[in-house]
Amino acid sequence: MVLSILCILGAGKSPDFIIAEVINRLGRNCFIVLALIVPVVAGLGLNFAIVLGAMAGQAALIMVTHWKVPGLGGLLLAAAIAAPLAAALGWFAGVVLNRAKGREMIASMILGFFMNGIYQLVFLYLVGTLIPLHNQTLLLPSGIGLRNTVDLKYTKYALDYLIYPAPLGIGLPLATFAVIGLLCFGIRWLFGTKLGQDMRAVGQDMNVAAVSGINVDRTRIIAMIISTVLAGWGQVIFLQNIGTLNTYNSHDQVGTFAIAALLVGGASVTKATIGQALLGTFLFHLLFIVSPYAGQRLLGSPQVGEYFRVFIAYAVICLALALHAWQKRPRAES
Amino acid sequence: MKPEAELQRPRGTGRALAVVKTFVDTVGIPRLIIGAFIIGIFVLAWAQRLPIGMLVTSSLVRFGMNGVLVLAMVPSILGGEGLNFGLPVGVICGLLGALLSVEFYMRGAIGFLAALLIAVPLAVLAGWGYGLLLNRVKGEEMMIGTYVGFSVVALMCVVWIVAPFKNPEMIWVVGGKGVRMTVTITNYWAQVLNNFLKFTVAGVEIPTGLLVFFAACCLFVRWFFRTKLGLAVIAAGSNPLFAKSAGINVDQMRIVAAVMSTVLGAIGLIVYAQSYGFLQMYTAPLMMAFPAVAGILIGGASASKASITNVVVGTLLFQTLLATALPVTRTVVAGTLSEIVNIIISQGVILYALTRGGGRL
Amino acid sequence: MGEYVLEMDDICKEFYGTPVLKHVGLTVRPGEIHALIGENGAGKSTLMNILFGMPVIAATGGFKGTIRIDGAPVMVNTPRQAMELGVGMVHQEFMLLPAFTIAENIKLNRELLRSNIVSRILGARLASLDVPAMRRDARAALDRLSLNIDEWLPVAGLPVGHMQFIEIAREVDKRNMKLLVFDEPTAVLTEGEAQDLLGALRRLAGEGVGILFISHRLSEVAEIADRITVLRDGEVVGRLTRGEVRIERLAELMVGRPVNRVERGARGARAEGEVAVRIRNLVVNMPGERLHQLDLDVYKGEILGIGGLAGHGKVAVANGIMGLYPARGEVEINGRQLSLGDPRAALAAGLGFLSEDRRGVGLLLDESVEFNIVVTALVSQGRFLRRGIGSGWLAARDARQTRAHALRLIRELDIRCTGPEQPVRRLSGGNQQKVCLARALTQDPDILFVSEPTRGIDIGAKQIVLDLLTQMNRERGTTIVMTSSELAELRQICDRVLIVYGGRAAGCLAPDASDAEFGLLMAGGAEVRTA
Fold first, then answer.
1. Are B351 and A317 an interchain contact pair (Cβ–Cβ within 8 Å)?
2. Is position B224 within any domain?
3. B148 chain-A contacts, CB cut-off 8 A
4. φ, ψ for residue C249 (rounded to 5)?
5. What is the domain count for chain B?
6. How far is C127 from chain A (nearest CA, A)?
7. Which residues, at least 6 apart from B220, have a Cβ–Cβ distance to it below 8 Å?
8. Least buried of A188, A305, C196, C296, by fewest C-beta within 10 Å?
C-alpha cells in the first residue's frame, strides 16, 4: 500500500488521467478478481487455474467475432458459450485439485501452464486444419493458426457503453459496474445458502466436514466450476473493454495479476472477502498505472515500468505466500 | 502394520506375467509410455529415411546441456526442500557470470571458466539467502520457490535495462544502454565444451567435452552425498525429527542443500548457454525450472526421493523426445511447436506427479 | 422400546491379523449411565468406532458380532447412519470449526433451510440458511445443558470446557438421540468444568437418553456410573454395578495380568549405588504429554521403568532430556550438568534414545537398513568414515566398514530383510524396531532411553526385543530407562517402576508389587484415596 502512494507521488501525472484510467480498469478487472473469492473460502487456496476460465472466455469471443455477431448480443452469446466450456474446464480442474489435496495451489498453477500449452496447440495448429474457419480473415497468412491479434470490433465496449454517463468528462461505464454489483450480491447470497455454508465448512477443516456428512470432493468441484465460469465471463468483460484480443497472450498474466490484486487488498490464502477483492483491484491497478511513470522518473528508462509492474505483482504474491506459510508453522509446532 | 507376506511363486504363464509386472513397476508407466514414443519416433524416422545420426547427435547435445540443470534438483529433494522451483535464482547467477565474462571480452575456454568462477560465488551467496527463506516456510517450499524465482527474474529485468554494460555486442543497438533480449556468444565461448575432444562415429557427432563435464558434475554430487555432511543433509531431508534427535542441525543442512542446488543451477545455465550459443535474458529464465523438474520426475524421482540415475534417465528420455519429435513430424512452424510440446509434456508430467496422491508428491 | 437401548453382542475385531476385540458384549439401558474403562490399547476406542460406523473399521476388514438398537439389529456403516439411528458421539478431538459460530457448529450439515427461487430450480443445496431458526434451536440445546453463553459467538477462542459442551449440544440437538457416547469427556477439563459436565450427563440421563462413557478417571466413574464394564486386552474382564464398585477392585481389573518375571541373577541388593542420571524439577512441554514436575534418580546399571496412562507425561521424560521438546530443570549425567534442548549435548554426554514414534522419529524410512543402523554413530561420533580424502565434515563414508557392521548386526539381531540395502519402510514393525535397537547398539551409549520398545510388534518379536534390552544391560552395563504403556513388560524386566500420573511422579514400586497398587497409581491413586 505504501508503495502505491510513493509511486503516485513519483509519477507526477494529472489526477484526471489517473482517475479515468482507474475507473476504466476497475470496470474490466473486478469481475475476475471476485471470481477468486469462492475457491479461497472453499479451502482451495489461490486459484491459479483461473486462467482456464479466461481461456474459455477468449475462445467464446473468438467464435462470436468469427460469426460477426455485433454488440451486446454478441457479448451475451459469448457469455453463453463460455459458460459450459468454462464449467467443463472447471470440473476438470476440480477433479485434479481433489487428487492433489494439500498441494492445491501449486497444482492449480501447473494446471494453468499445462492448459496454456494445450490452448496454444489448439489455436496455433488445430485451427485452420482440424477446425475449419469460414472467415479467413482470422487466420494467419499460412492458413494454419489464428492471427496474433483479433480485433473485437463488433463487441468492443458493448457492455461499457451501454450506460455511459460522463460527468466532468470522466466516463463511467455504469452497466459494467452494475454487472459487478450483481456479482457481489450474488456471492453474498451464495454464502447464505447451504451450499455456501458447506463450502465454508470444507474450507476450514475437510476432516470435520467429512465426518459431519458433507461431500467434500463434490463441494470443492462445485467451487472450482463456479470460479472458472465467473473467470470466463470476467475475461469476456475484460476483453470487450480492451477491444483487441492478443490470441496468445491476453490470458497469460490474468491469473497472476488477479491474484496479486486480491492479495494487495488484504486477502490471504485462507481468507478473502468481497471488500478485499474490490479494494485490492483498485490499489493494484492504481499501482499498475502509476509505476511505469515512476520507474521512468526514477531510473530514466520507460521500459522499466513494464517490468517493474510485473515484479511488483510477483513480489506481492511471494510475500503473501511466505507470510501464510510462516503463520501456519507456529500453529503446527505449538 | 502389514503382516509379513509370503511371496508366492507363480508357475508358467503366471510367472512370466509376474516378471513383466515387476519390470513395469520398476520402470514405471510414464517412462514406458515415453520410451515407447521414442522408439516409435525412431522407427518413423528410419522409415522416412531421415539422417538418424543427426537425430542422435542432437539428442546427445540436448541431454548434456540440460543435464546439470536437472541435477540441481537432487540436493533440493534430498535436503527435504522438494523440487527446486526457485531454480531461476541460480540461473540468474549463471547469467550474471556469463554476462560479465562477455563484458570483459573473455573468449574460449578462459571465457567459459571465468563465467563459472564469477557465477559460483554469487550462487553460493544467493543460495544461502534462498535457504534462509526456505527455512522459514517449511512445507510450502515449492510454491514460494516458484514465486521467489519469478520475482527475482522480474527484478533482474529491471536491472538488465539499466545495467551499465559496455560491450557493444551485448547492449541494445538503439539507445546504447541496457542488455539485449538475446546476447549471442558464438564469438566468445559457445560450443567450448561441445567441441572439446569431440569425435564422430557412425554419423553421430559426440560432444565429448559436454558429456564429460556433465559426468564430472554427477560424480561430484555422488561423492558429496557420501560424505558426513552429505549424509547429514540426507538425514535432515528424510526425517527432520530423527535428524534433530541425532544431533543434526536441520536448518543448517537445508541451507547447504539450497546452496548446492543454486550453484548447480548457475553452472547448469552456463553449460546450457555455451551449447545453445545464446544468452536469453529478461523473461526467459522464468520458465527454466519446469523442464528441469519434469526431467527428474520423468526419471522416476519424486519430491522426496531422487537419485543420480533419475537425473540421467529422465533427462535422456525427455530431451531425446523433444529433439526427435520435431524433425520427424514435419511441420512448417517447427520452432514454436517444439516449445509448445515442451510445455505440454513438462507441465503434464508435473501435474501427473502431483495428483498421484499420498504423501508429498 | 425394549429393555436395552443398546446391545453389542460378541464383537470381534482384528487389525491386520492381530485381535483387538475378543467376544466383547455390552448393554446400555435407556436413561442409564454406563462407563467403559480399561488401559490404553484395551480396545475401548475401537469398540466405539465400530458402534459409530467410522470408516477406519470397514477399511480394515470390518467386524464380527451384532449390534441392536432398541432391540432391532442394525448395520452401522457410516457415521451418518449411526446418527440416523439415534447414536451420537462426542469425540476426544473436537470436531468443531473455529471460524463458525456456536450455532453454526451445532447445526453443521443439518442447517435449517428456507427455499428460494433459485433452490426451486437448481436444487435444495441452494436454499438459504434460516439463521434465526438455527439460533433458536442452538439456544435450546445450550439451555438443556445449562450452558450460559451466546450462541452467535465464534467458537475460536472459547475455553476448552465450553468447546466440549458445544460438542455435546450438537449431539443433543439431534432429534432422535437415544444413546450418547463420550470418549474421555473430562480429559481436558478442569475440576469445575468436569463437575458441570457430570451434572449435565445426569440431567440427560434423567431425560431418558442412554449414556455410554469412556474414562480413565476412576473417581468420576465411581461417582456417576450406574454400571461399569472393564476391558482388558480386548476382552471384558469385569462388570460391576453401582453398589459393587470399589476403586481398588476397578484398578486391579484394569491392570492385572499374569507377569512372567525373568530372573536376572544377582541383582537384589544392587538397588542403591552411583547415580547415573539425576533429575530435579524437570518440566517438559510436549503437546499431549506435558510433564509438570519430576524429581528422579536413576542408578547406574539399573533398568528403570516409567509407566502410566497415555497423555500423563511419561513419554515426555525421555523426549525432554534428549532435547526433542522444550524442557526446563536440572539434569545431571554422571555428575555433569546437561544443557537441555540440545540433542547434540545429550548424545555427547553418552545418552542414547529410541523414540516411541518409531516411524515418525526413530527411522529414516526411505533409507537403507545399513544407513539407519550407522547414521547416528556416523554423524555424532564420526565413526564409519574413511580417513584420507577430506576430513571432518567432508570425510566420505567407509562403505566396506558400514556394510560389515550392518551385516553383523543383522545376523545378531535376526533382522528379517532382503539385505542391508533394503529401505527400512518395507520391514515389519518388529524388524524395524530391531533396526532401531541395532542403531542404539552401534552407538553404544552409557545410558539408553527407550520408549515403547514393543509397541505394534507381534508377540514373538516382543520377547526378543525385551531380551535384547536385558542383554545390553547385563553385558555392557548400559543403564536403561524404559518407558512403556504395557505394565507387564515393565514389571518383567525392570528393577524399579515409576508411575507418572497427571504430569507428576505418582510413586515408585517394585515390580512385584500388587496389581491393585499399580492400578491405583495409574488411575490417580492419591486423589482416589480421599474419595
1. no
2. yes
3. 318
4. -65, -40
5. 1
6. 5
7. none
8. A188
